[in-house]
Write a structure and sequence with these properties.
Layout: H1 3-35, H2 76-89, H3 105-120, H4 122-126, H5 131-134, H6 140-144, H7 151-158, H8 163-169, H9 176-190, H10 192-195
Length: 200
C-alpha cells in the first residue's frame, strides 16, 4: 500500500474517535442533568434517589390546606361507601391485609396508634402518608432522621431500631406500620371520591 493511501484511513479513525468523545460528553451532560434536583421534587420518601430500601408508592404532593370533610358531614352512608370501596379494591389497588383488624396484642396497639396519628394529620391521610414519617426531611435525609409528626409512632410500628430498615418497612403490610399506612394509601390510590377527606 502506498503511503498516500493511508491518509483516508487515518482521517476516518480520527473522525470516529472524535465522534466517540462527543458522544461520551453528551451522555455525561444528560446524566448530570438527570441527577440534578428538579423544581417538582417534594417532601416524600418517593422523591428519594432510587434505592431498593425505599419502595413506597408515589402520591401527589401535599397541598397547603388539605381538604377535610367536617365531622358533622361524615355520615354513616359516606363511611359505608368508603368501606365498600376499600373492600372492592382489597388485593388490587389496595393491600390485601391493610388495616389493623385481625392484629392482636402489641401489634394491634402499634397499628392503631399510627393509624390515629395519620388521621389526625390531614396532609398525611389525604395526600401522602409518607409525610407523617418524613416531615420536611427529603430523600436519604428522611432515612437518617425522619421528622414527620408521626415519626415516633411509625418507628415503633416498624418494630426495628434500624432507621434504614424502618424506612423500608413503613409501607410493608407485614408490619403494623404497613397495615396502618396502607389504609391511607388505599384511599389515595383507589378511593379518592369515597374516602379522602373523611379521615377514617
Amino acid at each position: 500500500m502506498k503511503p498516500q493511501d493511508r491518509s483516508p484511513n487515518i482521517r476516518r479513525q480520527w473522525l470516529i474517535a472524535a465522534a466517540a468523545v462527543a458522544g461520551v460528553a453528551i451522555v455525561a451532560v444528560m446524566l448530570w442533568r438527570s441527577e440534578a434536583p428538579g423544581p417538582s421534587e417534594k417532601t416524600s420518601i418517593a422523591a428519594a434517589p432510587a434505592s431498593p430500601a425505599l419502595p413506597p408508592p408515589r402520591f401527589a404532593p401535599a397541598p397547603t390546606e388539605p381538604t377535610v370533610v367536617p365531622p358533622e358531614a361524615v355520615t354513616p352512608g359516606k363511611v359505608a361507601a368508603c368501606r365498600a370501596c376499600e373492600e372492592k379494591n382489597r388485593g388490587g389497588l389496595c393491600a390485601k391485609n391493610m388495616g389493623c383488624s385481625g392484629l392482636q396484642g402489641d401489634d394491634l396497639t402499634l397499628c392503631e396508634n399510627l393509624r390515629s396519628c395519620l388521621r389526625a394529620h390531614p396532609a398525611c391521610n389525604t395526600t401522602n402518608p409518607a409525610l407523617c414519617y418524613c416531615g420536611d426531611a427529603k430523600g436519604l435525609e428522611c432515612v437518617k432522621n425522619p421528622k414527620g409528626p408521626c415519626a415516633q409512632e411509625a418507628l415503633a410500628a416498624t418494630k426495628t431500631t434500624d432507621l434504614l430498615e424502618s424506612a423500608e418497612r413503613y409501607f410493608r403490610p407485614e408490619f403494623p406500620s404497613g397495615r396502618a399506612s396502607q389504609v391511607s394509601a388505599c384511599h389515595i390510590r383507589a378511593c379518592k371520591d369515597e374516602c379522602v377527606g373523611l379521615q377514617l
